[in-house]
Amino acid sequence: MSDHTPASSNATDSSHSETAVLTPDAPVEVPDFTPHQVVEFGKEDGAAVTVIGKMLVVFFFYSLVIMLIVNMWTRSASHPTLSPDQADEAAEELDTE
């Protein structure tokens, strides 16, 4: 067999000599959005959520309708409906065999 080495021996050394430290003196980047823009983003996000929700509802009912149609189609194709006279004739044929 080939010589297998454990995965841990192939891993890189995770100890770093430099550690990131957040100092209070470090400048914090502030996004360049005004409060009005933030409100507009919220409205646009709300509108997008509404549209996506409506699309999901439509796709669900479309799938449900198609599923019911295919179910009825399959049932009618595999089990044809017989009139009472045809059912009696089919039963008699089975009895004679």
The oligomeric state is: single chain
By DSSP, the count of extended strands is 0
Q: How is the main sheet built? A: none
The share of residues in extended strands comes to: under 5%
Structural class: mainly alpha
Q: How many DSSP H or I helices?
A: 3
List segments where confidence is low: pLDDT < 50 over at least 5 consecutive residues: none
Radius of gyration: 35 Å
**In which range does the helix fraction lie?**
55-70%
**What's the rounded overall pLDDT mean?**
80
Task: Based on Cα principal axes, name the global outline.
Answer: elongated
Distance between the termini: 67 Å
Order of helices and strands: HHH
What labels would you give this structure?
97 residues, mainly alpha, 63% helix, 0% strand
Overview of the structural elements:
The chain is mainly alpha-helical and 97 residues long. The protein has a domain at 36-78. 63% of the residues lie in helices and 0% in strands. The longest helix has 44 residues, at 35-78. The protein starts with 6 loop residues before the first helix and ends with a helix.
Overview in brief:
The protein has three helices and no strands.
Which secondary structure elements does this structure contain, and how are they paired or packed?
Blueprint: H1 7-10, H2 35-78, H3 84-96
